[in-house]
Structure to design on (205 residues):
């Protein structure tokens, strides 16, 4: 399965088979790539803000992803896309629309984390997981270096009818149920690239 790892507005695409170039992209066949060249390529990708997207063609996406993880602090998190009566729960944090999520604690599985984090960030209860959604991946500055985070996502439903309370200690300003119109008008123009990918494949439109 292909993996797209975002860093700001750019991405690393780990893929199999042929790839048709479009736009500002650097395509590398990893059969000709050793560890030193991979390290050099990743460093250039991070340092060049206006540089190309990096397309890595490989026979095994999972194996190459494991190699790339070694260059970062690796973090796993989980979150939820919560649906109720054709509306979806979004949070507004740091001037962008997002979905509730958080790091996986020791001893938790992703499903447990997703439910806990949604409950904590929005004061919601009665969550039930319907199915697993595609995971997302992104790189960001972390301490003195960079982290690569995998987020496991789950579609959830609930009969909760109480007031949503945003967790302000996590810089969440709003937690709201949004319909398709609000999602198109407000969320899609102002969310993270990885969240946008998830929305487009998971919410009927």
């Amino acid at each position: 399965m292909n993996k797209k790892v975002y860093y700001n507005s750019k991405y690393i695409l780990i893929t199999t088979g042929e790839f048709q170039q479009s736009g500002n992209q650097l395509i590398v066949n990893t059969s000709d790539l050793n560890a030193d060249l991979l390290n050099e390529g990743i460093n250039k990708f991070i340092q060049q803000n206006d540089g190309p997207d990096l397309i890595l063609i490989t026979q095994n996406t999972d194996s190459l992803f494991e190699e790339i993880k070694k260059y970062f602090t690796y973090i796993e998190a989980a979150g939820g896309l919560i649906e109720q009566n054709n509306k979806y729960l979004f949070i507004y944090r740091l001037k962008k629309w997002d979905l509730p999520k958080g790091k996986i604690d020791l001893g938790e599985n992703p499903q447990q984390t997703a439910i806990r984090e949604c409950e904590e960030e929005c004061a919601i209860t009665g969550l039930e997981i319907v199915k697993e959604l595609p995971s997302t991946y992104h790189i960001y500055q972390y301490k003195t270096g960079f982290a690569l985070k995998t987020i496991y996502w789950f579609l959830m439903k609930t009969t909760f009818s109480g007031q949503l309370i945003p967790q302000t200690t996590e810089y969440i300003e709003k937690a709201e149920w949004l319909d398709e119109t609000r999602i198109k008008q407000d969320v899609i123009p102002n969310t993270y690239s990885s969240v946008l990918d998830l929305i487009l494949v998971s919410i009927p439109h």
In short: Residues 9 and 34 are 27 Å apart (CA to CA). Residues 3-69 form one domain.
